[in-house]
Amino acid sequence: MRTAAPSRRPLGAVVLAWVLLAPAAPAGAHGAEPHLAAPPEAASPEPTPPFEPTPPFGPAPLFEPPPPGSYELPPIATVRNHLLLDERGLPARFPALERGQVAVVSFVYGSCPSGCPLALATLQRLDRDLAGREGLAPRVRLVTVSFDPGRDAPARMAEIRQHLAPRGRWSFLTGRDDAGLAPVLDDYGQRVMRQVDPHGANTGVLDHVLKVYLVDDWLRIRNVYSVGLMDARLILNDIQTVLAD
Questions:
Q1: Which of 69, 80, 135, 203 is most buried, taking the most CB atoms under 10 A from its CB?
Q2: Mapping DSSP to helix (H, G, I), strand (E, B) and coil, where does residue 213 land?
Q3: Which of 90, 31, 81 is nearest to 215 (CA)?
Q4: Burial state string for 44-64 with b = 16 or more CB within 10 A and e = fewer than 16
Q5: 118: Cα separation from own chain's centroid
Q6: Res 109: pLDDT
Q7: Cα 119 from Cα 126, distance rounded (Å)
Q8: Which residue ranges form the domains of the chain, and what is each CATH number?
Q9: When comparing pLDDT for 1 and 235, which is higher?
Q10: Is residue 220 within a helix (H) or strand (E), and if so which, with residue range?
Q11: For the sheet containing 77-78, what is the strand order?
């Protein structure tokens, strides 16, 4: 595949953006799609302290990714199509892939204290790299899904989008509520648990393993990235490897 040279830009802006977005007062394939009801009015969030991440969010790369096409990425699992809400509050198909496309899917929440900013910084770097590759960019969708729909309403996802300023196809989605989002999290194997204090009160912190997924046009997961592999260079090479299948 012939591609143009990637554009490299610093990611310090995403750190500031994520801090600014933290709430001041706290915090098989191609199956049928379910009906999605209109979102209820957003409830007032419970107070939680704003998070203040300290960079760097992850270790420096410890390896040089292998060249695209020099390895294989066998399918890991198959997921389904779902309906979520976009940043305008409108129903949105997820992951909404056409033939010859792939999606890079990240699950985050807006008051996350550490891992989620790393995922967003990685996707922002990937978005910048893809912007310089005219033949590749239209074949890649970046999708960020909040697993905290009670606090991350569509308007909140719109704020995140505005601060990250995507240059390509990067969707910011949320669920109507926890129950509506549960099938999506189950499908992807993204487990989430709400922390409670000794009295059983919700702390606003969600326990989860940081995961970013590469999904092909048959809705097959081809790779899963966590902290040790959260490298935009590796994801970009994996995208090209999968698209060359």
A1: 80
A2: strand
A3: 81
A4: ebeebbebebeeebbeeeeee
A5: 11
A6: 83
A7: 11
A8: 77-194+206-245 (3.40.30.10)
A9: 235
A10: strand 220-225
A11: 77-78, 220-225, 212-215, 102-108, 140-146, 170-173
Cis peptide before 113 (omega within 30 of 0): no
| Residue entry with tokens 């239209």 | 138
**Residues 143 and 106 sit within 8 Å (Cβ to Cβ):** yes
Q: Where are the strands (E) in 65-201, listed by range? A: 77-78, 82-85, 91-94, 102-108, 140-146, 170-173, 192-196
CA distance 41 to 13: 31
pLDDT value at residue 63: 76
DSSP state for residue 22 in the 8-state scheme? S
CA distance to 20, 25, 64, 142, 225, per residue, from 115 (Å)? 16, 21, 22, 18, 12
Q: Give CA–CA dist 233/129, Å, rounded.
A: 9
Residues 58-108 have pLDDT tens digits of 445 567 899 999 999 999 999 999 999 999 999 999 999 999 999 999 999
Structure-token match 């399918």, residue found: 75
Q: What is the largest CA-CA distance in the chain?
A: 59
- Please state, in angstroms and rounded to a whole number, the distance separating the CA atoms of residues 110 and 152: 6
pLDDT in tens, 212-232: 999 999 999 999 999 888 999
* Percentage of the chain modeled with pLDDT above 70: 69
In the numeric block, which tokens belong to residue 151?
Answer: 């606090």
